[in-house]
Model the fold of this input.
Amino acid sequence: MKKFFLLVVIVLLLITFSDTDMLRPYRDQLYELIQDNVPSVGDNKDAALRKIQKQLLTLSEQWGEEQRAVLEKASSSIENIKKFHRNYCINNDFNPILFGDPLKQSCVVIENNYDNLLKP
Done:
């Protein structure tokens, strides 16, 4: 109980003094951590979507702009992710912009989180 109380106090202090340049990076990291690990109540689909978007964005930083644009469009909604997964990961359709190792890595990211997208 003491740890939880301490965490609440730290979060409140961080929110209170987060306007300073010194604390802003830590505040942003804390917000990302909370957003990734504490999904909305009963809504795991949105948490899985955010996780896929974040991981695909991290992957696409090492690739070109066109590949990044394809992944951003593919991860813009749950339906787009399902469609991308069906077309390029399962049916092995050819994507002229995203192919080879980048496509395989993208499919791995989607497949790791795909079960959470299907949950009601």
